[in-house]
Amino acid sequence: MIKAKRVGEERLPKRVKQGDRVDRLLCGMMAVVLLLAGGLVSCASPASSAEPGLPTAPEPVCLQVSVEEAQQLIDERDDLIVLCVGTEEEYDEGYIASAVLIPVAELSERLGEIDKSKAVLVYCRIGARSDEACQILADNGFSEVYDLMGGTDAWRKGGGEINYPLTIEDLVVTPVNPKYFKEPNRVLIGESYKIECIVLDSESSTFSYKWSAERGGISGEGSVVTWTAPLQGGLVDIMVTVSNDCGGVVSRSVELKVEVCSCVFE
Hints:
Helices cover about 30% and strands about 30% of the residues.
């Protein structure tokens, strides 16, 4: 009995030790499983920050700017293109200096007129259409585009300078010999007439004039020239093209009726 008891007492610790080994083995396996599972979860989860060396998202190519920032761009950037995407009527009401007009409805078809290598400042009247225009430019590879917030309304309120298109107000025809100018635009063959081009422009005081006539001869240059009527009757168009030092160009013509008989002037 004592012997049996001792045997039992000796075996009991062995059973306990074997159980400990199993428990430890199971715990180790579970730890490995948990570590693997954690690794899979961390791989599947988005990284909270970009790792060094990985490419970052590109910066926006279209930036909104205030009136002050737009004025600074105009003053400091020689390569800046100022683009008005409003209507022709809005442009004629006043535009930012050196601006070119391409209405937003025509922009997609006229992208070739804008140099992609240059920065572009876009504006309209209040800013809605300039947003659309900026997106068109960005989608077509323009890398530096600025959108004037509030458009020309904000520009005016902020004290920005407004210019007006180069315009020929009138072509005034005056006879050298008043006798042969009975009524406007009726002239006598072979007689001479002064033609004056009256220009409206707020940007420049320097203009270039290019005159041409279907028939007859033109002498002189500048805003006033002398035209001598041909020796044959009929209608004659006289045209002048005016340009200024800001890139503005405008043309206008006047139609004169050349009379053969001087009796119509008596």
